[in-house]
Amino acid sequence: MANALNSKTESRGPDDDAERAPLLKEPSEGLPEVTSDAAALAGVTAAFAAGTGPVAVDAERASGYRYGQRAYLVQLRREGAGSALVDPVACPDLSGLSSALSGTEMVLHAAHQDLPCLTELHLRPDRLFDTELAGRLLGYQRVGLGFMVERMLHVRLAKEHSAVDWSQRPLPEEWLRYAALDVEILIDLRDALEAELEESGKLEWAREEFDSILAAPPKEPRPDPWRRTSGIHRVRNQRSLAAVRELWYERDRIAQEKDVSPGRVLPDAAIVEAATAMPRTAAELSRIRQFGIKLARRYPATWLKAVNRAREMPPEELPRPNAPGDGPPPVNRWADRAPDAACRLEAVRTAVTGIAEDVVMPTENLLLPDTVRRLAWAPPATVDPDSVGEFLRERGAREWQIGLTALPLATALRAAAET
Where is the HRDC domain (predicted)? Predict the structure, then answer.
């Protein structure tokens, strides 16, 4: 492919830092037309099937504007094929493109964000390179695409359109240009990261991580999603919690019907305040400021009925203060309830932190914090590297992680037991 560094660039003004990287302004081969019908998609599919090397892929959603996380633009680039911008509203089935690229590595930045919406379009990689995850494994403190491109390729990407409403039609040309540039440099970034991973001895680790992402089953819907309402910790009793739950589900129903982000129907802060105040009349409801936003004020009867259902709910139907779970209790209770487990947790956390510092990566990329807590709370009956390794494997740890941590963690657990 044409190297992204050949793109037109715009330098900063004379009063700016002379060493600041130049700004990528135009795609090197011009802005491609948006693919928005079956014939054009067939042409893109043929061109990408004939191309060579990895395929850079990105997707733009309308987070904060629309309900859900569907894609509203898909960008692709491959050597020999150039760049393509596909409108997934007009072309919602990319299975033909996916079949044409069977076995080809796809390069994404933060794959966990884009893979679900790409899967909805039937575009799913067989092989993956995640540039954000590669940066984390290499120990970069900042792994946003803009920062990594400037750090490694010495050019800048304009990011002012990253949070716009991509469901808008037609999409402005400057937004499309921004989207095309995101994939134009992605292969170059991938190559630079792969070289650094190989030099640091982490390339096989990265490949295990990428394979694990692709092998992961689809996420199950979160139980009790209303419990993630921002500010819910301020709700002090079960009846008010019931009001949060009833208001949350009414808001979600309306948001889905209108295809708008739930926060645009009713902010979380309004739900929490109404659940605390438990208003009985429309006048009382109107005193809560956030119920005055455009969509919320259309449904006063709906909100009051939700609060009244919570008010009249039998005690046995009220939600528990804390969601039931299969994990250990909150860590701040361990010292009193299970001092031995608290001692083990301190020991294994210290071990994990030390290993992460040695290999230069965040501790959460070495082992998930939940896995560390579970190991400390209920370690294997026989504490040795094999049993600890099997425990980690059952929790989804990769072999490179087990190889680094099983022995030190077994040693830490035995030392804690002796203490």
Answer: 237-317
